[in-house]
Amino acid sequence: MTRTATLPDIRPAAPTAGDATRVAVSTVIFTLRRDRGADRASVVIPLVRRTRDPHEGLWALPGGWLDVAESLDTAAARTLAETTGLAPSFLEQLYAFGAVERSPSRVVSIVYWALLRSDEVIAADARENVQWFDAASLPRLAFDHNEIVDYALWRLRNKAGYSRIAHGLLADEFTLAQLREVYEAVLGRRLDPANFRRQVENSGNLIPTERFRTGSHRPARVYRYNQDVELADRGPLVRH
Amino acid sequence: MTRTATLPDIRPAAPTAGDATRVAVSTVIFTLRRDRGADRASVVIPLVRRTRDPHEGLWALPGGWLDVAESLDTAAARTLAETTGLAPSFLEQLYAFGAVERSPSRVVSIVYWALLRSDEVIAADARENVQWFDAASLPRLAFDHNEIVDYALWRLRNKAGYSRIAHGLLADEFTLAQLREVYEAVLGRRLDPANFRRQVENSGNLIPTERFRTGSHRPARVYRYNQDVELADRGPLVRH
């Protein structure tokens, strides 16, 4: 209550603690991009250029204030749509960032993260002050947003299972070569195809179909993600 | 800003959104208890009886308001110490709960969770309005705290690895039979000893020592948890 402590109290009785802090939501959205001539895809995220202080002119994660009448999930989806036009089908809470000095005023940010398939990105309007950046080589961002992206990247690399990543970043059906390319982009390094195949098959998180894709190489079996794993992974908070 | 919208604006320029919401912290603390005559241990949590509205008289998770000058982690440790006298060595953020109707006024609760060894519990003062409850059969709690405990239990059962659970609930060194007893309490069912041994050994998350414990059974190898796994699991936010 620091900022109102010296003013006459003409307001109705109000709680005297916990309300000098504002709540915001921000979202880290990962997708894959393959630049012309690049030999592999990279993980990119959309950022929004700030048009006011603090940190005017710096790039920041899309987000905004929590409205008193909306849930955290709703606020994440709304602010994301307002700032970027994106509407990812999976938008999950990642972590609450609340260091005292992370903003000039006291702000707790509830951070969400999402995975987007390339076709979902294309569907979104292009916005003038929105730009996509390689998540592995960002400029200095506003507030503690570099730290937030680092944490989200770590979760993507270490915690997201095969089924989750396949569902979020690939089409409904895919070959193991396509899935491996996604993992190579996420991890930023090449993977041995035989080892990768073994790990995926042992994980039980992907379902092999009886279909094969043919092309310049020998026919490759088509897989799909396992929705049971996906839902189990998200636990009892899922209410779809 | 609903509650101040009709009042003359005599305050210094202040943000006009995000500040009608208050931020609280709450903590779910798991430990094991073996009741006299019980054939296995159960998972218990401490609850605090509310002495004021809303929900006066109901049991609630220990917690309190976030102070404007403290971090979320600090607030969790402080409110836990103030309400229960407990000071767990591992206290981690679990999830932010922010449904609009979860409290009569708008409150976002940042929930932490912790594991406590029995000797840490004994060290804490007994408080008059604090009581330990079996996590699997709770009464109706204040606010959405039943839902919060259910989520924390799901995380404990599904996400916490062997190393984390061993470190949080057992002494520094333990036999596989002791670890299995902990898992049986967490899962609420018997586990096959041979299968359990195989899974633990394959996980690579525990380190066998060259020491054995003897007693009424045949000598049992002593294990310790793998601190590297523990720290890797918590990712880049760890700053100890």
Automatic annotation (TrEMBL), chains A, B:
Nudix hydrolase domain: residues covered: 20-157
InterPro entries in the cross-refs: NUDIX_hydrolase-like_dom_sf, NUDIX_hydrolase_dom, WH-like_DNA-bd_sf, WH_DNA-bd_sf, WHD_NrtR
Gene3D superfamilies found in the cross-reference section: Nucleoside Triphosphate Pyrophosphohydrolase, Winged helix-like DNA-binding domain superfamily/Winged helix DNA-binding domain
Pfam families from the UniProt entry: NUDIX, WHD_NrtR
Cited PROSITE patterns: NUDIX
Matching PANTHER family: ADP-RIBOSE PYROPHOSPHATASE (PTHR43736), SLR1690 PROTEIN (PTHR43736:SF4)
Protein name stated in the entry: NUDIX domain-containing protein
